[in-house]
Design brief:
By secondary structure, the chain is of the alpha/beta class. The protein contains 5 helices and 7 strands; from the N terminus they run ααββββααβαββ. The protein has helices spanning 2-6, 17-36, 82-87, 94-113, 133-145; strands spanning 52-53, 63-67, 71-74, 77-81, 122-127, 150-153, 156-157. The strands form 2 sheets. It has a 5-stranded mixed β-sheet. A two-stranded parallel sheet has the order 1-7. Helix 4 (94-113) crosses helix 5. The longest helix is centred in the N-terminal third of the chain and has 20 residues, at 17-36.
């Protein structure tokens, strides 16, 4: 028995680099395609209750304006208070306009670096469901003045068959 173990030929394990490169290429392509087709995640917060809808469209990744009961927030940056915006007689909310103009310039620069080079002016507005229409119209007007005229309003998807 001892002689059989000593004279057994040793087998060395080898890896094929071509197979490994194929696996990594497929993995990379999968990650790139899944990253470019992502949809925007709507944050679930206690201060923001979105209206419900039967819409089945998913939101795209764009500039986001969140209007809670207290604040107006652009991409997680508070820019104005709701009470101050409601008290203004103007339709234009100056603080929001300033931030959105900055975001438009930034988006135009980035669009100029891409293949299609088109700035689309798309914004996603997430407004509290009990928000006064006057404030929502001010936010939409300010968005349009800052070159973000393509507006999507976020809603929570209502279950089929649920009552309104």
């Amino acid at each position: 028995m001892r002689t059989l173990r000593r004279h057994r030929p040793s087998m060395a394990a080898t890896l094929s680099m071509v197979s490994l490169m194929d696996i990594f290429t497929i993995l990379l392509l999968f990650l790139l395609t899944s990253a470019t087709t992502e949809h925007q995640v709507v944050p679930a917060t206690d201060v923001l209750k979105l209206p419900s809808s039967t819409s089945e469209l998913l939101p795209n990744v764009t500039l986001t304006i969140m209007v809670t009961a207290q604040d107006i927030i652009v991409d997680d940056k508070p820019v104005a208070k709701v009470t101050a915006a409601l008290e203004q007689p103007d339709l234009l909310i100056a603080e929001l306009y300033q931030e959105m103009t900055y975001q438009a310039e930034k988006a135009k620069f980035i669009a100029g670096q891409t293949a299609d080079g088109a700035f689309r002016g798309t914004v996603n507005v997430m407004a509290h469901k009990t928000l006064p229409f006057r404030l929502l119209s001010k936010v939409l007007y300010t968005s349009a003045q800052a070159e973000f005229g393509n507006v999507s309003l976020s809603v929570m998807q209502r279950e089929k068959g649920a009552a309104a």
